[in-house]
């Protein structure tokens, strides 16, 4: 009997251990399946191809992983129309609800940001934020009255369709484009431009819990109250591309590229300046694809560099240098043509760049050119044109001369008496051809 009880006790103990082990393996997996995840991304800056690609990839990832929702923390002064439309198209086609949250306090959703906010399944704002000023501006070209009217009407139709689709105030949306109006978060809520005001991500997820939204896959009730927040950050590639898409950075890269290639061409074999210059130019030209480049301004900058180089070889008494400074200053101001301030070059960058470029070409390259033209002072080349004294009588048969304290064998077409001053015409091995000085 005791043996049977002992066996039962051991069997029960083994069973409990197995049960605990299996529970520790199964329950976390089961709970992970039940747990809701919400992806959160931050878009802080200009809406351009880089930010558009980042948002699109995030939407794809949220759909692939079946997240409960995707939250875009937005703070933007606006950006490119093409990038904005590609973002909106991706948001509308998402099966996962996309929530645009203008945050933190002090942020804005201006211009292209207003379109993106109105296209969201849920639009929210933090206290101390604003939205609006969505009038289209010419990026990279000047629009005449007819073109401006067409662009405005197209933008109005687009933003009204977005507002009507999401059940928001279409009249306010039209005024944001035609009249460039802006609204605070409180005004936007009262005018039914947004759905709610909330202070941070945690309160946002609690506030939208249980709300019903309509995506391309049908109606969905959000369950976000206890959801886990999964933050998706900009990768290194996107960070680099976003950095060089800044007009000031692109401008500096372009100048560094010109400097590097010019130095390599004037000093073949240096390698490092040429490699760095080539990389900088390629990065600058990539950035120019996302910026409103005025090619007349670019040509003026190239002309300025040519004028600086010519100043080194041509005596112009400073006329070419002044022309180069004027051309580079005007070209820099014209390089990025847009009414939007975030698409323009800063004077704090232009002025030092003009000064540094002027000094680079007029001083550094000038000194290098003078050194190149300077007469050699060593070797056989250094003897050409040197003055000396005839140490003996010199004829066609030969003689000796003293140059720089050294005695050289020499000959001359004309007879030269001892003690006369001579000048070297040619160097043939260790024998000099001289003439009377």
Give start-end ranges of low-pLDDT stretches: 26-34
Distance from first to last alpha carbon: 135 Å
Structural class: alpha/beta
Query: Would you report the number of β strands?
Result: 16
Helix content: 40-55%
The CATH architecture assignment of the largest domain turns out to be Alpha-Beta Complex
Q: What summary fits the major beta sheet?
A: 6 strands, parallel
What's the structural domain tally? 3
The CATH homologous superfamily of the largest domain is named 2-enoyl-CoA Hydratase, Chain A, domain 1
Q: For the largest beta sheet, what order do the strands appear in spatially? A: 8-5-3-2-1-11
Describe the 3D structure:
By secondary structure, the protein is an alpha/beta fold. The protein has helices at residues 2-34, 49-64, 81-92, 112-119, 145-165, 170-178, 185-190, 201-207, 236-244, 247-266, 272-288, 295-313, 319-335, 347-373, 379-383; strands at residues 37-44, 69-75, 98-102, 108-110, 122-125, 130-132, 182-184, 196-197, 212-215, 218-221, 228-232, 387-390, 399-403, 406-411, 421-428, 431-436. It folds into three domains: 30-237, 2-enoyl-CoA Hydratase, Chain A, domain 1 (Alpha-Beta Complex); 246-373, no CATH class; 379-436, Nucleic acid-binding proteins (OB fold (Dihydrolipoamide Acetyltransferase, E2P)), CATH 2.40.50.140. A six-stranded parallel sheet has the order 8-5-3-2-1-11, sandwiched between helices. α12 (295-313) runs antiparallel to α13 (319-335). The N and C termini lie far apart (135 Å).
């Amino acid at each position: 009997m005791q043996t049977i009880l002992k066996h039962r006790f051991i069997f029960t103990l083994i069973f409990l251990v197995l049960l605990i082990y299996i529970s520790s393996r199964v329950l976390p997996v089961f709970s992970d399946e039940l747990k809701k995840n919400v992806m959160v991304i931050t878009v802080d800056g200009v809406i351009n191809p880089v930010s558009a690609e980042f948002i699109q990839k995030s939407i794809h990832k949220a759909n692939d992983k079946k997240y409960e929702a995707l939250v875009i923390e937005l703070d933007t002064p606006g950006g490119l129309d093409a990038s904005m439309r590609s973002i909106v198209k991706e948001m509308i086609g998402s099966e996962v609800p996309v929530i645009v949250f203008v945050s933190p306090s002090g942020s804005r959703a201006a211009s292209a940001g207003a379109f993106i906010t109105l296209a969201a399944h849920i639009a929210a704002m933090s206290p101390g934020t604003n939205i609006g000023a969505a009038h289209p501006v010419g990026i990279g070209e000047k629009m005449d009255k007819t073109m401006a009217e067409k662009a405005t009407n197209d933008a109005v139709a687009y933003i009204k369709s977005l507002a009507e689709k999401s059940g928001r105030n279409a009249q306010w949306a039209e005024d944001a484009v035609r009249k460039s109006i802006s609204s605070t978060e409180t005004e936007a809520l009262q005018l039914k431009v947004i759905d709610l005001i909330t202070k941070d991500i945690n309160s946002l997820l609690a506030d939208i819990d249980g709300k019903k939204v309509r995506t391309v896959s049908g109606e969905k009730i959000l369950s976000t109250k206890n959801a886990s927040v999964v933050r998706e950050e900009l990768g290194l590639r996107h960070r680099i591309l976003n950095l060089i898409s800044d007009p000031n950075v692109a401008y500096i890269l372009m100048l560094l590229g010109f400097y590097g290639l010019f130095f390599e061409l004037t000093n073949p074999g240096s390698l490092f300046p040429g490699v760095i210059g080539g990389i900088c130019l390629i990065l600058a030209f990539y950035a120019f694809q996302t910026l409103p480049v005025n090619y007349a301004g670019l040509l003026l900058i190239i002309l300025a560099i040519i004028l600086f180089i010519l100043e080194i070889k041509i005596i112009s008494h400073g006329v070419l240098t002044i022309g180069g400074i004027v051309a580079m200053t005007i070209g820099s101001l014209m390089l990025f043509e847009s009414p939007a301030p975030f698409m323009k070059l800063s004077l704090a960058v232009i002025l030092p760049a003009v000064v540094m470029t002027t000094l680079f070409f007029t001083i550094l390259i000038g000194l290098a050119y003078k050194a190149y033209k300077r007469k050699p002072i060593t070797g056989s080349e250094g003897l050409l044109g040197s003055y000396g004294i005839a140490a003996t009588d010199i004829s066609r048969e030969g003689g000796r001369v003293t140059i720089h304290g050294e005695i050289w064998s020499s000959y001359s077409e004309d007879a030269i008496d001892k003690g006369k001053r001579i000048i070297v015409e040619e160097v043939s091995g260790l024998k000099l051809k001289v003439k009377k000085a």
